[in-house]
């Protein structure tokens, strides 16, 4: 009898355990499905932005037709009328198109990037003038999207006329249309034309902002943590500061942006919309994270190490800088990288300090107005053109890649120092 | 008083095995001047008095053991000897402690230099999270004892040899010290302390975290080191005090109850509290 009840209890307990385990597995399954869905949709809609559709042209580089005057100085070469040349090359492929409206419809196939590429080619190879060269130039966004299969051929969302599509299909059949890797997406600046828009400016801007953020917040954060943890007396004042630092970590980022707007831009008058100011605002946000990470790693350093170093005759400052801080460095670095990864994804404070303008240039210094990765995503997501959809997804791929790399670095630092200590 | 009633027989045998009685007597006779002297030392933590009027002479080239129940103030007293209590908030010390006649609490004393002359080994082995070499080299570096790399290397090797650790670690000098076993770590800490050539070595329960074999090695080492250094050891183990020390002081509730030759303390204690403690009636 006794044994029987125990058996029932046992079975009940085993079932409860099994139930609990299956809840865990289910929630894990749900989370990983969501993640797979997120990544796969982003990759499937974004991967094509790393490629471009080009058209193969034969250009007769005739100085007269290009309107280039001798001598072939940079100014004279730059002043040539390349747009006409590109258009004429296109019309040459379709001799049957004669009427003005038809020609205009046909010329829609060309991206403004086409004449720029021809111009850059001529400036780079002035000796080729007088010869005939073969050059691949980009097609405009709608045709690019059509070729990539993102644009419906029929229905109310189609953007091209039946004739335009027929002309394009003929070029495809003739083998003049190519699908190429688009390095300009990673190196170039933003553009009004989706096929020309690149994320290089945003990457550089984010890099400069993070650099400024790191240079400000890392030393300041360590100094603050060291003082609070190692040198300060436990007074009401230090406790107040401690509580405030913990609160700062929870302040919404948009408020830091407003602070930057009010103080850094309006009081100190630093140039708005620059990575310098963006980095300063992000540093304000990252500081509490670094201070908290550094303090907890300082606290985790065994008191025996401090005592040992003191007993060896080291001064308190020597103890801190020669023994305690080096031992706390891995944890601090991990916290810093995670803080910087957070800062990389912050959008709101950058909107507040004006890093939201359309900037077509890649910034040369942190003092130039610039875009940044999250704000670029925000701007592209708002754009009406169909071509920006894949650009948005591709920008998300880029920022996610950077985030994963940074977190990976944090994991590597942590695991390497762990094995060292063991 | 009958020896057997004061101290269990087997432990006395153990002590007798390890302690060379002649050496003890010789040591007592040779030593004339105390190296380290404490007079009327009082220590307060805030309002609480931790030590009352402690006076003791620590003779050079001897091992002095401080025994007593937990919380009796023996570690506090040890930490007064190299001014480690300076860094404790709210700790106040009165009285006089002199090293070779110099007041170590005088205002013009450099604590860094003092700790160079009075080394310390802690209860828990506390190697720095660096290589074995860096651990030993740290002291000579901050005290400026080695001018050239070769001096430093020589100093590291001799210190490790003195600590009897060199043969065990000579092939892994640049590997993390935290990879050593507990006993090796403690001997490393002793090597680290003697690398700066102190006059006095303070040991705060150096074997309480070690197994009996490692303890035996550390005790053997203490026997060798006493030829060159004065050693003060705080210990919970009366057997250890009996085995290694020539003089023993018994602390109780902040008082130094009795200090005498180890033989007298264990075989012929004067105070009833000492007798009760070493017979195991309390503590």
Provide structural commentary.
The complex is a heterodimer of chains A (422) and B (283). Chain A has 422 residues and is mostly helical. Chain A has two domains: 53-181, no CATH class; 200-421, MetI-like (MetI-like fold). Helix content of chain A is 68%, strand content 5%. Chain A is built from 18 helices and three strands. Chain A has a three-stranded antiparallel β-sheet with strand order 2-1-3. In chain A, helix 10 (200-231) runs parallel beside helix 13. The radius of gyration of chain A is 30 Å and the shape is extended. The relative contact order of chain A is 0.11. Chain B has 283 residues and is an alpha/beta fold. Chain B has a single domain, classed as P-loop containing nucleotide triphosphate hydrolases (Rossmann fold), CATH 3.40.50.300. Helix content of chain B is 41%, strand content 24%. Chain B has 13 helices and ten strands. Chain B has helices at 3-6, 9-18, 21-30, 74-81, 111-117, 132-142, 149-162, 166-169, 182-194, 212-225, 238-244, 262-267, 272-278, and strands at 34-45, 48-59, 63-67, 91-99, 102-103, 118-121, 200-204, 230-234, 247-252, 255-261. In chain B, the strands form two sheets. Chain B has a six-stranded mixed β-sheet with strand order 6-7-8-3-9-10, sandwiched between helices. A four-stranded antiparallel β-sheet of chain B has the order 2-1-4-5, covered by helices on one side. In chain B, a hairpin with a 2-residue loop joins strand 9 (247-252) and strand 10 (255-261). In chain B, helix 6 (132-142) packs across helix 7 (149-162), helix 7 (149-162) packs across helix 9 and helix 9 runs parallel beside helix 10 (212-225). The longest helix of chain B is centred in the middle third of the chain and has 14 residues, at 149-162. The radius of gyration of chain B is 19 Å and the shape is globular. The two termini of chain B are 22 Å apart.
């Amino acid at each position: 009898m006794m044994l029987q009840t125990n058996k029932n209890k046992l079975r009940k307990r085993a079932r409860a355990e099994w139930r609990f385990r299956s809840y865990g597995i289910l929630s894990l399954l749900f989370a990983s499905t969501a993640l797979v869905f997120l990544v796969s949709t982003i990759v499937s809609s974004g991967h094509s932005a790393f490629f471009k559709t080009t058209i193969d042209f034969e250009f007769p580089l005739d100085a007269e037709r290009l309107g280039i005057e001798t001598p072939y100085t940079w100014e004279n070469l730059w002043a040539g009328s390349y747009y006409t040349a590109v258009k004429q090359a296109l019309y040459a492929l379709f001799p049957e198109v004669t009427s003005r409206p038809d020609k205009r419809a046909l010329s829609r196939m060309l991206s403004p990037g086409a004449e720029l590429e021809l111009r850059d080619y001529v400036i780079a190879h002035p000796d080729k003038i007088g010869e005939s060269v073969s050059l691949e130039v980009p097609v405009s966004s709608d045709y690019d999207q059509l070729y990539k299969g993102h644009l419906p051929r029929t229905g109310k969302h189609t953007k091209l006329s039946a004739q335009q599509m027929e002309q394009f299909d003929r070029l495809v059949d003739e083998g003049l249309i190519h699908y190429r890797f688009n390095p300009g997406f990673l190196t170039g600046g933003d553009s009004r034309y989706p096929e020309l828009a690149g994320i290089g400016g945003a990457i550089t801007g984010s890099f400069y902002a993070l650099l400024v953020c790191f240079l400000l917040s890392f030393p300041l954060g360590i100094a603050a943590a060291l003082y609070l943890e190692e040198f300060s007396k436990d007074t009401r004042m230090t406790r107040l500061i401690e509580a405030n630092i913990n609160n700062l970590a929870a302040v919404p980022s948009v408020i830091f942006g407003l602070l930057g707007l009010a103080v850094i831009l309006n009081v100190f008058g630093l140039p708005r919309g620059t990575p310098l100011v963006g980095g300063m605002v992000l540093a304000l946000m990252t500081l509490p994270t670094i201070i908290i990470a550094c303090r907890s790693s300082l606290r985790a350093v065994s008191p025996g190490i401090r005592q040992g170093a003191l007993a060896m005759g080291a001064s308190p400052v020597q103890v801190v800088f020669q023994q305690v801080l080096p031992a706390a460095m891995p944890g601090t670095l991990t916290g810093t990288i995670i803080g910087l990864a957070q800062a990389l994804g912050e959008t709101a404070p950058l909107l507040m300090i004006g890093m939201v303008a359309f900037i077509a240039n890649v910034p040369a210094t942190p003092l130039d107005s610039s875009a940044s990765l999250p704000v670029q995503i925000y701007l592209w997501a708002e754009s009406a053109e169909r071509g920006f959809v894949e650009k948005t997804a591709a920008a998300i791929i880029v920022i996610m890649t950077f985030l994963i790399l940074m977190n990976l670095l944090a994991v590597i630092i942590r695991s390497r120092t762990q094995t060292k200590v063991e | 008083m009958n020896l057997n009633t004061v101290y269990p027989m087997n432990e006395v045998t153990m002590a007798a095995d390890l302690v060379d009685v002649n050496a003890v007597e010789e040591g007592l006779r040779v030593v004339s001047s105390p190296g380290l002297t404490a007079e009327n030392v009082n220590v307060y933590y805030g309002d609480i008095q931790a030590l009352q009027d402690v006076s003791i002479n620590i003779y050079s080239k001897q091992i002095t053991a401080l025994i007593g129940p937990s919380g009796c103030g023996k570690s506090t007293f040890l930490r007064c000897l190299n001014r480690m209590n300076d860094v404790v908030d709210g700790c106040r010390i009165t009285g006089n402690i002199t090293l070779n006649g110099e007041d170590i609490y005088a205002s013009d004393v450099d604590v860094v230099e003092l700790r160079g002359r009075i080394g310390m080994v802690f209860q828990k082995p506390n190697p720095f999270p660096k290589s074995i070499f860096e651990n030993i080299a740290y002291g000579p570096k901050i005290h400026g004892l080695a001018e050239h790399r070769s001096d430093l290397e020589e100093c590291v090797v001799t210190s490790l040899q003195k600590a009897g650790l060199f043969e065990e670690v000579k092939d892994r000098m640049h590997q993390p010290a935290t990879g050593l076993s507990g006993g090796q770590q403690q001997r490393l800490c002793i090597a680290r302390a003697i690398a700066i050539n102190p006059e006095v070595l303070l040991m705060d329960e150096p074997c309480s975290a070690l197994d009996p074999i490692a303890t035996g090695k550390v005790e053997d080492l203490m026997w060798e080191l006493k030829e060159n250094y004065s050693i003060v050891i705080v210990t919970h183990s009366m057997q250890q005090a009996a085995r290694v020390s020539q003089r023993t002081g018994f602390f109780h509730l902040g008082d130094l109850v009795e200090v005498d030759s180890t033989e007298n303390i264990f075989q012929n204690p004067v105070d009833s509290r000492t007798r009760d403690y070493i017979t195991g009636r309390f503590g």
